[in-house]
Amino acid sequence: MGLFDRISRVVRANLNDMVSKAEDPEKMLEQSVTEMQEDLVQLRQAVASAIAGQKRTEQQYNQAQSQANTWDQRARLALQKGDEELARQALQRKKSFVETATTLKTQLDTQTTQVESLKRNLIGLESKISEAKTKKDMLKARAQYAKTQEQLGQTIGKIGTSSAMSAFDRMEEKVLQMEARSQAVAELGGDDLEKKFAALEPAGDIDDELAMMKAQITGGSMNPNPLPPASSSGSTSTQDAPVDDDLEKLRKELDSL
Q1: Residue 157 and residue 159: Cα distance in Å, rounded?
Q2: Residue 17: in which H helix or E strand, if any?
Q3: Handedness of CA 29, 35, 41, 44 (dihedral sign)
Q4: pLDDT at residue number 234
Q5: In terms of domains, do 80 and 105 share one?
Q6: pTM for the model
Q7: Do residues 140 and 25 touch, judged by C-beta distance below 8 A?
Q8: What does DSSP assign to residue 15?
């Protein structure tokens, strides 16, 4: 393989690749349908022209046939009048028109065949264009969907690897850590508060019990069945001594706790 052949092949390959990349399916579909419609217009014009030519040939053929019949009648009339020379001339004219009619008939048959073929092609092209228009809309929708899917996939891929997404994930983790610390602090603070209230509750019970005891002791003097009073001061001091000893003993036990 020569150098120029290799260079030519490389150039053609690169050009084909550039053209393929530059082709937009939606635009190419529109362009294809437009070109088909242009071909349809040209074909319609060709069919119309062929039909017009067929009509002219048919008129000429009919006129030649009519002239041939006319000169045939004139030749017969000349023979009836006994003028053979005039009849001969009339027959010559008839022959000329018959030959013309025969030629025109061959041409007319050819034109008729061509017109029928053009009509079939016209109908076929119209059917293809109608089908192409239907497919065009469908293919454009499919091409748009495929393009959207490709763009979406590329966007998702970029988001998954972008620094913005990583930063978002880091901030989310940071917020979760902040919430965990806040919850821990709240729980610790709540425990301290509960301990403080728990410390107050026993004191309140003791105060209530102490008040109750005071009320009982105070009300003891009003007891309807009091103990008999001491007969003398000496006996009173003797009875108070064990009580004082018990109070002293109680204080010592409380101090030792």
Answers
A1: 5
A2: helix 3-22
A3: negative
A4: 46
A5: yes
A6: 0.46
A7: yes
A8: H
